[in-house]
């Protein structure tokens, strides 16, 4: 499917898709984490990562919302990690399509089908907790990740594999302090209402910005709700541009979704403001194409975190197969691009690749491009 580098492709993955995985071993634990000091409940498999135990299992993966390129790459990253362990004999996937009740039903359905382990992206947060509890009570190794569903490890599910979103917020804020030393109005966009990712990011930002007394958060509190959906993001940002005559900086935890709306600044005779967000090729290429006409447009990104799914898979497989669990329960996404200081990387646009790939991911850009065709 053809596309421009300034558009986000929405690909919906509906229903439950099951496929058998070939028995192929990996030679490393992956880039997200090394093997840790957990106690193995059984023997590991020769040639496979240490988190791959010898007990045969089936595994399920559910998304609260799977309909954008970030989720496609993230799901593919999870599948790639699963394929490193030959003890996982089959895999099933379900997309909640942004519907909390469907996401709950997906979990219940996979438990009823008899999966031994379950990795869950609980977009709806606390609303997903009863379904996670039921899965664990049914004897399924249950690992929610990225969005905090509430509850506690070992009681309501086996382990929550989070991400260090507070540090993301601090990294964004530190960059804003350097880039806008005189302060200004900051518009913050995140995903579904109440999601723990956005709340943690805001906590990190406020810890840096509030003491200065120079920065004002505008828009809906605690953040503008976008559901991480590019179409809704465009509606939200377009409305904010019309409402607020002065927006000095935008912070978003899904940067590529902003591309469709950012030209609204130019249409209204305003420069695109400073942008602190997560990476994506479409966004980097948009920056390269528009920076000359927008004197205030500066860009800072953190790694978008597709590989959080790899760490969650490692935990679920280790616990269910008797392998050695990873050393950390938290995925740490580093800073990735900075148009001002060029560290750790300058903004990089790969014009020969689709816009909806993420160069910070462990999966290389060419592999992502092949996946999205």
Automatic annotation (TrEMBL):
Protein name per Swiss-Prot or TrEMBL: Periplasmic binding protein domain-containing protein
Main location: other
Residue span, Periplasmic binding protein domain: 67-322
Swiss-Prot/TrEMBL keywords: Signal
Gene3D superfamilies the UniProt entry points to: 3.40.50.2300
Signal peptide: 1-25
Organism in which the protein naturally occurs: Terrabacter carboxydivorans
Recorded coiled-coil stretches: none
Transmembrane feature ranges: none
Location(s) in or outside the cell: Cell envelope
SUPFAM superfamilies documented for this protein: Periplasmic binding protein-like I
Location of the region described as Disordered in the Swiss-Prot/TrEMBL record: 324-346
